[in-house]
Amino acid sequence: MRAVRASSPSRIAERIRVLQKEGGATLVETAIILPLVLILFMGIIDFGIAVADFNSLRQGDREAVRRVVVGDVSGASACPIAGTVPSADTGALVCLTKDKTRLDASLVQVSVVLDTSYTEGDALILCVQYPLSSTTGFFGLILDGRMVHAQVDMRIEKTTLDIQAFAEPGAGGWAWCV
């Protein structure tokens, strides 16, 4: 067992002098590293939220398409829709999609594309887009104004609904939705 020896006052004073000399260097290192760590942290927050928004958009799009191809748009709550909806079932599909994304319904934009008409075996394509924004403000130049897109297409199984082609007018446009 080692004996614990008391430090002499001169050794303690020497350690304090060494720490005081390095105090300025530590402050400079902190001043260099801290902004980088903060930017990294804010980036993780902003881009993490952007990825979560994309996942919510894609999941909501998939759930809505799955329900409509089997002929069920029940449970769709009222929502804001830009443009004139061609049928009540199409409006219900748009609102169901906005509801399933769990994002701000006034910002979610929906487009319904049909191969020819709403008949069994044909494809129903549902495109959804949502504007990104920087939560922290650090990455506003990169994220603000950009749209995240999701597209799901499935074959129609039941034609009990009156679904017609429709696209909400939006800033992002629908050229990507094919």
Summarize the structure.
By secondary structure, the chain is α+β, with helices and mostly antiparallel strands. It has one domain (35-167). It has three helices and four strands.
Overall domain count = 1
| Helix count from the secondary structure assignment | 3
Q: How large a portion of the residues is in β-strands, by DSSP E? A: 5-15%
Mean pLDDT: 90
Distance between the termini: 78 Å
Report the count of strand segments.
Answer: 4
Structure class? alpha+beta
pLDDT below 50 for ≥5 consecutive residues: which ranges?
Answer: none
Order of helices and strands: HHEEHEE
Overall radius of gyration: 28 Å
Q: Please give the largest β-sheet.
A: 4 strands, antiparallel
Described by the principal axes of the CA atoms, the overall outline is: rod-shaped
What is the topology?
Blueprint: H1 9-69, H2 88-101, E1 109-114, E2 123-131, H3 140-143, E3 147-155, E4 166-167
Antiparallel strand pairs: 1-2, 1-4, 2-3
Protein architecture, described:
With 178 residues, the chain is α+β, with helices and mostly antiparallel strands. It is built from three helices and four strands; from the N terminus they run H-H-E-E-H-E-E. The chain has helices spanning 9-69, 88-101, 140-143, and strands at 109-114, 123-131, 147-155, 166-167. A four-stranded antiparallel β-sheet has the order 3-2-1-4, covered by helices on one side. Strand 1 and strand 2 (123-131) form a beta hairpin. Helix 1 (9-69) runs antiparallel to helix 2. The radius of gyration is 28 Å and the shape is rod-shaped. The relative contact order is 0.17.
